[in-house]
């Protein structure tokens, strides 16, 4: 999408100068995406080194005296978000100001308590990111297909709302309107608590024997992937959204205690059912998560053994294309000590049989399918 627009196939909805305050991962990624669309991006950052890096990588130009931005995006850490929003509103009274903070209620409350005129402020949050931060990790495509929450209120002008939603659409994201309270409760459940759970589980590995960790497969890697996130940022995020996170953690603690009680005596009446119900609720919950591009459509998986040699994965994709089988999703698992990997490929149910027959005829080994 970004490449098509960069080539002039589609015009950007965003016009004028966009000022981005904070040239870290999100700010620089927004800058890259807008710059590809031909939008004038002026970057500002408290760190001269971070700013130089973002400019050198092409996320935009340095801010300059006389800039008259139509839109300002505040992409700074949560503990200074309210301060920067207040400063930008005062410095550029005609500009629409939005932000990318992962907590929405706390900065809004702080600004209201200070008596700041918020008529031109619209809080927002792109649900996108990477485990690594900084301008060097920025990518123009990280917003594609991701939700972008926009928090409007009764004072928000329709034209100003259109500017923020246009920004999200230009970056390939899907605007979703929520109140700040709804947003914070939602991200507590789907983002903040998962981060803590992943970190707590990965923390158990620190004292584990090496031979235990040598048995780790893709499941535990998937479960703990986000545990590599930066502690400094998460201390701020979790502190700013503490109560919604605590509410989910308290409920999760009850569930964990219930399972632990059942497993203390697995043969006691009702114990096995309690465990089975826990796993079944997990099945039901996963089934409710949106699939590719936010669709409710479900896919089936086939697992293909792939030799760990150059070109094999490309060959697999090419032959699936010849079979008219679209790869909806892909997950790779490498077997420790083995010279092959397992490619778990998601396809539409109607394509499973065709894919299996066609790949086996071409010499591929199918380890399993979800129909097995």
Automatic annotation (TrEMBL):
Entry protein name: Prephenate dehydrogenase
Membership in a protein family: Belongs to the prephenate/arogenate dehydrogenase family.
A GO term, aspect molecular function: prephenate dehydrogenase (NAD+) activity
Domain Prephenate/arogenate dehydrogenase: from-to ranges: 16-293
EC number(s) from the headed UniProt entry: 1.3.1.12
Classification via Pfam families: PDH_C, PDH_N
Database matches in InterPro entries: 6-PGluconate_DH-like_C_sf, NAD(P)-bd_dom_sf, PDH_C, PDH_N, Preph/Arog_dehydrog, Prephen_DH
SUPFAM superfamilies named among the record's database cross-references: 6-phosphogluconate dehydrogenase C-terminal domain-like, NAD(P)-binding Rossmann-fold domains
Keyword annotations: Oxidoreductase
Keyword Glycoprotein found: no
């Amino acid at each position: 999408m970004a490449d098509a627009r960069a080539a002039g196939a589609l015009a950007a909805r965003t016009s004028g100068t966009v000022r981005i305050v904070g040239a870290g991962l999100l700010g620089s990624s927004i800058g890259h995406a807008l710059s590809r669309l031909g939008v004038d991006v002026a970057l500002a950052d408290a760190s001269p080194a971070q700013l130089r890096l973002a400019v050198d990588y092409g996320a935009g130009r340095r801010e300059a005296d006389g800039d008259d931005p139509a839109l300002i995006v505040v992409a700074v850490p949560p503990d200074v978000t309210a301060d920067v929003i207040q400063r930008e509103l005062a410095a550029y009274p005609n500009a629409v100001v939005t932000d990318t903070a992962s907590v929405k209620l706390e900065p809004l409350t702080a600004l209201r308590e200070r008596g700041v005129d918020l008529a031109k402020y619209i809080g927002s949050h792109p649900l996108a990111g990477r485990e690594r931060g900084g301008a060097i990790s920025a990518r123009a495509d990280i917003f594609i297909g991701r939700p972008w929450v926009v928090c409007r209120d009764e004072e928000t002008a329709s034209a100003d709302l259109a500017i923020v939603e246009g920004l999200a659409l230009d970056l390939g994201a899907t605007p979703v309107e929520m109140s700040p309270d709804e947003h914070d409760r939602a991200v507590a459940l789907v983002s903040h608590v998962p981060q803590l759970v992943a970190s707590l589980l990965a923390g158990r590995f620190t004292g584990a024997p090496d031979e235990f960790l040598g048995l780790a497969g893709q499941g535990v890697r998937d479960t703990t992937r986000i545990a590599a996130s930066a502690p400094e940022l998460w201390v701020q995020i979790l502190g700013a959204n503490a109560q919604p996170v605590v509410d989910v953690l308290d409920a999760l603690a009850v569930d964990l205690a219930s399972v632990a009680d059942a497993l203390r005596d697995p043969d006691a009446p009702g114990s096995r059912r309690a465990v089975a119900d826990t796993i079944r609720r997990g099945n039901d919950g996963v089934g409710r998560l949106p699939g590719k591009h936010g669709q409710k459509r479900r896919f089936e998986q086939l697992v293909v053994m792939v030799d760990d040699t150059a070109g094999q994965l490309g060959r697999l994709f090419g032959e699936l294309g010849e079979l008219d089988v679209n790869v909806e999703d892909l997950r790779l698992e490498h077997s420790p000590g083995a010279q092959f990997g397992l490619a778990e490929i998601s396809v539409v149910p109607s394509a499973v049989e065709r894919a299996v027959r066609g790949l086996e005829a071409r010499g591929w080994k199918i380890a399993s399918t979800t129909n097995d």
